């Protein structure tokens, strides 16, 4: 602003000067104008060329929205790309570089272009989203402050067995489970993470003949569903609402908002896919794993009352939800998976809700197809249920 007004004043005096002394006084003004012009031009240009931004939660949210707008068109490329940025956040200084350019057209999921440069991601953003562009360069260091407790709780998982594939599904992404409390062997299969409301039920893992079929009134979002006591609990697509669907009544019996929970990929797991609100169940009951802006998108564990769907108690962790490949609950302990896409990974973080303490497990786990988009503990069988690129997989779990 200051510079512009200065320029204007000079311009005025310049025109006066021109009438009186044309030869001698013109050149300093021209030089001044040229310098001002070059400065302004470079200044404007620099904001267009490369802007470094700290990975602020608000920005991360917007970033994810660009990748996965409406969630339906996530390509593997976009997902992989997103977690790469997350990895940089985790590994380096937490910087992600953004390229804003006037040439960039609307960001189409399928057309997302990316480049690797100086170990940082260059992300092209569509012009409508330039609200994110800023000339400020802020840096955050991913400090890890957690109370690590060395003595392990009694029911801590000791090891995870080799993956056992029971059958293959068409969709690379999906969820499957059994009823957490009822003593039957029914297998519930919910394929895909968006644009689906069809629940297929089989009499066992091996039997591939459809036994029951349910059409939900809403689409679900993500893969974090739970079946418990003849009810399906799922996250309603594009919302932070939890829905309770009763199989016998074939109807929704309850619907509740998880207060403050992020949705639509503001706080998903590494693979995105609307996995913001993840339900879990263990011997203690129903849980919800989510994140809020208030807790800086770090994982919040909520205890859910299965009859009212009220969150009766919460635990705020300092583990960023987006850093987790997935997470599940077992014996009141939250476990986070390091990567969803590496052959050999680990459960590298745990939070005990009984003692409010952070644990650092190092439990190795094999992901055969390196694309694990669902992981849940099933306490009646002491197994983990997983969906690995369309393979309906279980892992035996060793608990003392
Ligand atoms: C979702 O898609 C519809 C049309 O397909 C569009 O109007 C809407 O803005 C999209 N939502 C978001 C959050 O981009
Ligand atoms: C986005 O992709 C669709 C389908 O490929 C195309 O029709 C549309 O023009 C694209 N939009 C922009 C802004 O590039
Ligand atoms: C497989 O499931 C179908 C449908 O429920 C059932 O009719 C059939 O008896 C089952 N087969 C076995 C071997 O259990
Ligand atoms: C969220 O987690 C990060 C990384 O552990 C930590 O630096 C930050 O303080 C946490 N935020 C809150 C509100 O606990
Ligand atoms: C985790 O365990 C593996 C062996 O199972 C070991 O090689 C690795 O160093 C351990 N990592 C940490 C951080 O303790």
Describe this structure in words.
This protein has 400 residues and is an alpha+beta fold. The chain folds into three domains: 2-49; 51-132, no CATH class; 159-398, Lipocalin, CATH 2.40.128.630. Helix content is 18%, strand content 36%. The chain contains four helices and 25 strands. The strands form six sheets. Strands 18, 19, 20, 21 and 22 form a five-stranded antiparallel β-sheet that branches. Strands 1-2-4-3 form a four-stranded mixed β-sheet. Strands 5-25-24-23 form a four-stranded antiparallel β-sheet, with no helix packed on it. Helix 1 packs antiparallel against helix 2 (22-49). The longest helix is centred in the N-terminal third of the chain and has 28 residues, at 22-49. The protein is globular and about 90 Å long. The termini are far apart. Residues 1-22 and 43-150 have low confidence and may be disordered. It binds 2-acetamido-2-deoxy-beta-D-glucopyranose (5 copies).
Spell out the blueprint of helices and strands:
Blueprint: H1 2-20, H2 22-49, E1 51-54, H3 57-67, H4 76-91, E2 95-100, E3 114-117, E4 120-125, E5 159-168, E6 174-177, E7 187-191, E8 198-202, E9 212-215, E10 226-228, E11 231-235, E12 241-246, E13 251-257, E14 278-282, E15 285-291, E16 298-304, E17 311-320, E18 326-330, E19 333-337, E20 344-352, E21 357-359, E22 363-366, E23 372-378, E24 383-388, E25 391-398
Parallel strand pairs: 2-4
Antiparallel strand pairs: 1-2, 3-4, 5-25, 6-7, 7-8, 8-9, 10-11, 11-12, 12-13, 14-15, 15-16, 16-17, 18-19, 19-20, 20-21, 20-22, 23-24, 24-25
